[in-house]
Structure formats: C-alpha cells, structure tokens
Amino acid sequence: MYRKLHGVGNDFIIGRFVEGTDYVALSKKLCDRHTGIGADGLLLAKMNNNIPYMVFYNSDGTLAPMCGNGIRCFSRYCLIEGLVSGDEFKIDTKSGIMNVKVTQKDPFMCKVCLGRPNFSTKALDIDTNKETFLNEKIRLSCGKDIKVSALFMTTHHLVVIVDDLKKAINDKIAEELQANKIFTKGINVNLVQVIDRSNVVMKTFERGAGWTLACGTGASSAYVILKEKGLIDNELTINLEKGQLKISSIGDDIYMEGPAVLIASFEINE
Questions:
Q1: How far is 86 from 1, CA to CA, in rounded Å?
Q2: Identical fold between 2-114+258-266 and 136-251
Q3: How many angstroms separate the Cα of 84 from the Cα of each of 81, 88, 91, 263?
Q4: What distance in Å separates the CA atoms of residue 89 and residue 71, rounded to the nearest whole number?
Q5: pLDDT at 242
Q6: Any bridge partners for residue 192, and if so which?
Q7: Per-residue pLDDT for 112 more than 80?
Q8: What pLDDT score does 269 carry?
Q9: Quick one: average pLDDT of 114-134?
Q10: For residue 200, how far is the Cα from the chain centroid?
Q11: Catalytic: 215?
C-alpha cells in the first residue's frame, strides 16, 4: 500500500522499501505529474534497528540525504502503518537520526529536531579553498553580483535574501545559482524576503525537483542565516504558497514544525 501526503504543498509518494526494486526508474515514473501519480519525491520506509529509515528519491530519480517536509509526511505514514507509536519517536535518515514530536493530531502537526547547521564547504561540496561560504558574492550572467550564504542543514542549501521575491523568481536567479559549477553536487536555492522580525516569505528551487511549493530544510536554513544576521527573533513563521512552517531554536539545535496531510492511499503496478 502506497500513500500520498503533502507538507504545505510539498508532496510525496510513500511506501515500503522492497529489495531489488529499481527505485530510480520508479521514482521518475510515479512522480511524473502527467503520466504518473505526481509528486516532488518518493519516500521509502526501511527498518533499521527497529527505527524507520527514510530513503528519499527526488522526482528525477536522484537520491537525497533528507527532506524537511518529507520527514513530517514520512512520520505520519509511519504512524498510520504502525512502524512507530506514541507522540515522540525517532526517524533515521542519511543525515542521521531525527527526533519527532507530534504536537497536534487533528489536523496533524509535528515538530522535528534537525540538529545543528554545518557551514563547512567540504560538507557542502563547494569548489573553493574557503572554509565557509557565508556572505559571498557570485556574479550573475547579467553582470550583477549577488550575495549568498551556504550551509548544510541535513542537506545542501543556499540562502539568498532578496528585496522583492516575485522579481527574484522572474529574474531566474535561483536557476542560475543552482547550476553554478562551484556547487559540485548541486544545491537547493532558497530565495527569502523579510516581512518583519517574525515573518518571511520564501520560495525554493530544489536540485532534482525544480521549483517546489515548500522546503522544510530550506526554511530552516533561511532561519539560521537570518538569525546570524540579527534580522529575526527566535521564533519565525515561514509563509509559503500553501501554508506556514514554524522554525525555532534551542541552543544550536534547529526545530521545524508544520503539518502533514494525507491525500490518498493506493496500490500501484510497478
């Protein structure tokens, strides 16, 4: 039995991992929005020492280490399937074990501790001699320089603070930055516009998926950079096209809270 869920518009097909399945091909097939089910990614549950392990394929068939909205949807799937129980449990990922707490059952909401951000350029696979890549300028094809900051927040992220989000999207800044060869394994580009100290609007261009309606680890990355700059308070609402995410921190640990909505349950012909 497969299920489709979404977290503020970021949608996923989720099922049990079966050895021997060509998931590269299957993710492309199922995630296609015209000839398949349609989704930003395929998530698979594989038990590891009695803890569900989340295998994450992007819609283009590439593997990714983690996904913020995905892990909330995956958590709800695991509860439905009986792979976990209670209001607090652990989910294992390629980026490590994440602690999940259910904060509301109807509608479903949960909070995930994503751990600490990593600013190392080695972790980010950036082609540079610099140890970090913060407040760096990258020249665009139009001849203008744009200031960016990179961090590994369970996966590769670039944060770009813009004055006008819609204009930045139309100018195709994100697509150009994502394709920059300095990011040797690609990068998720987060365009963020500050509204006030408690609210921002954001849009993410994800490697392997393109524009998505939301990105949980991207929202958390934006929070980290904005807080470093002193532009926001400790609790931040990320306003997205289909809803909101709440990001906060305790010490160096980053917490993401948001919904996970069940759309459908179905069988597929693999």
A1: 22
A2: yes
A3: 8, 9, 9, 20
A4: 12
A5: 96
A6: 161, 202
A7: yes
A8: 78
A9: 98
A10: 17
A11: yes
pLDDT tens digits, residue range 155-211?
999 999 999 999 999 999 999 999 999 999 999 999 999 999 999 999 999 998 999
CATH number of 136-251: 3.10.310.10
Residue showing tokens 């693999």: 270
Domain boundaries defined on the chain: 2-114+258-266, 136-251
CATH of domain 2-114+258-266: 3.10.310.10
67 part of the active site: yes
31, 78, 110, 215: the catalytic one is 215
Nearest to 270 by CA among 32, 4, 22: 22
Q: Are 186 and 178 in contact (CB under 8 A)?
A: yes
Look at the block and give the residue holding tokens 């580009």: 189
Q: Are 180 and 145 in contact (CB under 8 A)?
A: no
In tens, the pLDDT along 206-247 reads 998 999 999 999 999 999 999 999 999 999 999 999 999 999
Assessment of whether the complete model's pTM goes beyond 0.85: yes
Query: How many alpha carbons fall within 13 Å on the CB side of residue 265?
Result: 7
Token pair for residue 247? 């990001």
> Cα separation of 80 and 4, whole Å?
12
Residue identified by tokens 């001849």 is 143
Active-site entry in 31, 67, 73, 110: 67
Average pLDDT, the chain: 97
Q: Residues of the chain with pLDDT > 70: what percent?
A: 100
> How far is the CA of 233 from the CAs of 89, 115, 224, in angstroms?
28, 19, 11
Q: What's the token pair of residue 113?
A: 């501790």
Query: Residues 168-204, buried b or exposed e (16+ Cβ, 10 A)?
Result: bbebebbebbbebeebeebbbbbbbbbeeeeebbbbb
Whether residue 117 is preceded by a cis peptide bond, meaning omega within 30 degrees of 0, is no
